Amino acid sequence: MIKITLSFLLLLFITLNIASCSGPARKQKITINMDSVIYKPGTKEPFTGKWDDSFNGFRVTFDVVNGKKEGDFRIYYPNGKLQMSGQLKNNRNIGEWKYFYDNGNVESSGNFENDKPEGKWYWYYPDSTLRQTGYFRQGVREGTWKTYDKNGTLIDSFEVASDSIVSGKNPHK
Hints:
Blueprint: H1 2-17, E1 31-32, E2 38-39, E3 49-55, E4 58-65, E5 68-76, E6 82-89, E7 92-100, E8 106-113, E9 116-124, E10 130-137, E11 140-148, E12 154-161, E13 164-169
Antiparallel strand pairs: 1-2, 3-4, 4-5, 5-6, 6-7, 7-8, 8-9, 9-10, 10-11, 11-12, 12-13
């Protein structure tokens, strides 16, 4: 849950600050106002096009249609490997999203509906071994959450209702 929150914050920070970045990779300038619509600078005309820029060494790409982020969204590490990928519709996360370690292995994956995590999510160790699984319903943790050690052995299992732990079981205690 913490990684997802940090990723959301990173996405928000990058999105809000991307217009103020400078560098040779940027081909067009845009303005992002508080209404979350992306405008061509100095106009009230919504921007449409592909955005490809860098921010603190990370490369960010996304599509914009009529001022709203739509379609593919990608962030790349300074080493060129993918850090985050997903889909956007009307400025909201939808469908499958994946987060990657800088070695290229998947760190976590799951689905979004209307900008909220939904369904089963998976987290992995840097060597691709499963670390944790859990469920979200409308962005809130629920159901059985399981945590595994690096050998794949279940080390913790607990039930969550309304984002609070109801009961916990650790088979090794």
